[in-house]
């Protein structure tokens, strides 16, 4: 070994350590969310300015779901749609197991988990899966990527109908209200209609939009930040930070962590018991355990925007869950990837 190679190895090891640490740190979008909440806490928008900003936010959200529809390729849908057992397993986890766990969390006394925050936990449990991060982690871990694309996208499509229905159902069981046709109509107009229009135009504009992912990313993230700023501004004006203490926030984080750990165990070990391949197990684990912040925040605004409940308090558990799931799944994806690498390197030796 030459002296140059000997000196290069510690530097490479140090770089690998820094790269590993970065995976566990909050991503840029999470930091922007934190900054948005801080801005809303000190400079909340209200009055006529809030009305105008609300209209701009609705337009941005419509554009967001239009782009989601235009990005989803028909070939991708056909490629992954045939794996019905995998998709059914993920959908049952997302829209059945999660809500049942949310209802079980209701056994925690309100002295530990405040009622508005528990409403946020229930709402989190009926949301669809994420799209981008589910696919990214599945790809990183060596899972079934086409199936992940179809399943995550399908979860969001079904979620436009199932989330308002399940929200009314779980809230009615806890005395928090029932199903609202106005909420469903609002979601169909604000989210579903732009999505369908995007799907119709997909053959003509889909490739152009997919080739300009970085250019259009500000629409994705900017629209969510706008909704968060508007929701938290209203919540701050209603006394959000005077209502909840640091202990309340800590309780939500612990509940989010327990909820995620439970679902990860169910999806990981359950997929093995059901006889799925390792690639499908990875897809089920990542798609079935996630909850979408991108869909959840606009849906919360549509469902609870005209209610007496504070939208800011309701989306707070979701925002915290978002970071918890990213950190946990980054670790799990690396474990899966490391095992796959070891298995791949062992095959030539065995031969």
Automatic annotation (TrEMBL):
One of its GO terms (cellular component) is plasma membrane. It comes from the Bacteria. The chain crosses the membrane at residues 24-43, 49-67, 88-109, 115-137, 149-171, 183-201, 222-243, 249-269. InterPro entries: Na+/solute_symporter_sf, Put_Na-Bile_cotransptr. Pfam families: SBF_like (PF13593). Keywords: Membrane, Transmembrane, Transmembrane helix. The keyword DNA repair does not apply. PANTHER family: SODIUM_BILE ACID COTRANSPORTER 7, SOLUTE CARRIER FAMILY 10 MEMBER 7. This is Bile acid:sodium symporter. It comes from Rhizobium quercicola.
């Amino acid at each position: 070994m030459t002296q140059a190679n000997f000196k290069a190895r510690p530097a490479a090891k140090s770089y690998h350590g820094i790269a590993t640490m970065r995976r566990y740190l909050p991503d840029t979008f999470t930091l922007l969310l934190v900054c948005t909440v801080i801005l809303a806490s000190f400079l909340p928008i209200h009055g006529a300015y809030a009305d105008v900003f609300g209209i701009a936010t609705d337009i941005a959200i419509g554009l967001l779901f239009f782009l989601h529809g235009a990005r989803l390729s028909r070939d991708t849908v056909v490629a992954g749609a045939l794996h019905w057992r995998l998709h059914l397993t993920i959908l049952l986890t997302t829209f059945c197991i999660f809500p049942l766990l949310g209802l079980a969390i209701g056994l925690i006394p309100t002295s530990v988990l405040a009622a508005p925050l528990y409403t946020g936990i229930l709402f989190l449990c009926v949301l669809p899966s994420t799209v981008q991060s589910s696919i990214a982690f599945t790809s990183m871990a060596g899972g079934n990527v086409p199936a992940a694309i179809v399943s995550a996208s399908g979860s969001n499509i079904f979620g436009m109908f199932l989330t308002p229905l399940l929200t009314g159902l779980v809230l009615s069981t806890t005395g928090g209200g029932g199903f609202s046709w106005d909420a469903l109509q609002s979601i169909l107009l604000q989210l579903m209609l732009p999505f369908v229009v995007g799907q119709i135009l997909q053959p003509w504009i889909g490739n152009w939009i997919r080739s300009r992912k970085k250019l259009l990313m500000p629409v994705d993230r900017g629209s969510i930040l706008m909704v968060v700023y508007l929701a938290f501004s209203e919540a701050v004006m209603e006394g959000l930070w005077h209502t909840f203490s640091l202990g309340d926030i800590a309780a939500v984080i612990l509940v989010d962590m327990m909820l995620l750990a439970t679902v990860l165990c169910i999806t990981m070990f359950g997929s093995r018991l059901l006889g799925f391949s390792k690639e499908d197990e990875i897809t089920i684990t990542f798609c079935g355990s996630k909850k979408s912040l991108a869909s959840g925040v606009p849906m919360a605004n549509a469902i609870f925007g005209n209610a007496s409940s504070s939208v800011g308090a309701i989306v707070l558990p979701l925002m915290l869950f978002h970071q918890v799931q990213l950190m946990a799944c980054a670790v799990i994806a690396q474990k899966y990837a490391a095992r796959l690498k070891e298995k791949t390197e062992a095959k030539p030796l065995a031969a």
